[in-house]
Amino acid sequence: MLCTCLGFRACRKGGVAVEFALMVPILVFTMIAMVDFVRLMSEDGRIANAALAGAHFGMQSTAHAADEEGMVRAARADAGKGAEELEIVAEQKCLCANGSAVLCSLSCENGAKPVMLVKVSISKQFATMMPYPMIENPVPLYRDAEVQVQ
Fold it and tell me: What does pTM read for this prediction?
């Protein structure tokens, strides 16, 4: 296309403004996506730590392992602000050496004492700031921690 301007430099004056106008939406979208990703990873770490805190409470003794509400309270306390949004489930189970589940008050088939475990599971629906292609919104987050009782 021929330039009808008097000089070559005068014909290029609007090019930078056009490039800027085309790049700003892409840059803004990228910045928002990065902030959302950081928020998502932060929330995932927060619920993982809360699950570990609940499991740590339960692993202290057999009495603590039976206190499922105490494990939930410990997880909520560790989660801090926004803990009421979390769905927290705590459970105690006992396994024999062959992997079969038994009641914790009973012995295994070979007469051995079963291994007592506690598990704390936490789930949450995380809402992103804007919808993204091929990513569901809200994003389901799920973490669990399972440890052996001392």
Answer: 0.80
